[in-house]
Amino acid sequence: MMTTKPMKKRAEPSESAKARILAAAEPVFAEWGFDAATVRKISEAAGVPVALINYHFGSKEGLYRAIFETRAPTIMDQRIAGLRLARAEPDLDRRIDLVVKALIYPMFSLRGESPSADFGRIIVREMSDPQSEARGIFRDMFDPVADMLTAAIAECFPDWTVKEVHWAYHTMLGAMTILMTDNGRMARLSNGEVQSDDWEEAALHMCAILVAGLKHRDRSQTRGV
């Protein structure tokens, strides 16, 4: 009696095309931003017809959101893990170091690898895009962990007001964004002494400066504002 081996399931061509589109879209969005990254540029980079982008993702914004849905959970999981580690530290003076690291390190580590470096640039572009709020990507995917981070800061400084906590958090985001978008200016101004592409060194310096700013903040000027 003849027996037949079970045939291996082959990936559907449409599945392969969808993966190619996602992979090709990241560097295009990273380079051009949401508005200037056309579906034609993405389809050419992926080697697929333009119609397949709408077929798989519904629209350019659907594709853009799919990139975040694929990539963002890793960053959020890393931040949550970092915050759990921080909350296990009973000394609030040491805990704030861990809270700041939970914010900074997951983002800076994106600079150290490709294609994650492209996603890092996409995040920074989205943060500064006037249409970001309308798209709601940060609200849906990042804000829940942002709430956890601000709560952790407030726990470290229980006498701070809500305003002081949020000004601190968004100041840290601003500093992080500047370094994430550096394309060589730091190296030029420092005559090559500083290389922002060394993400571990960048994160180390950034965290040390931010923690010092939080711990030694002069509240006398803002406490009643």
From TrEMBL:
It comes from the Bacteria. Residues 15-75 form the HTH tetR-type domain. Keywords: DNA-binding, Transcription, Transcription regulation. One of its GO terms (molecular function) is DNA-binding transcription factor activity. Signal peptide: none annotated. InterPro entries: Homeodomain-like_sf (IPR009057), HTH-type_TetR-like_transc_reg (IPR050109), HTH_TetR (IPR001647), PsrA_TetR_C (IPR041586), Tet_transcr_reg_TetR-rel_C_sf (IPR036271). Pfam families: TetR_C_30, TetR_N. Residues 38-57 bind DNA. SUPFAM superfamilies: Homeodomain-like (SSF46689), Tetracyclin repressor-like, C-terminal domain (SSF48498). This is Regulatory protein, TetR. The lineage of its organism: Bacteria, Pseudomonadati, Pseudomonadota, Alphaproteobacteria, Rhodobacterales.
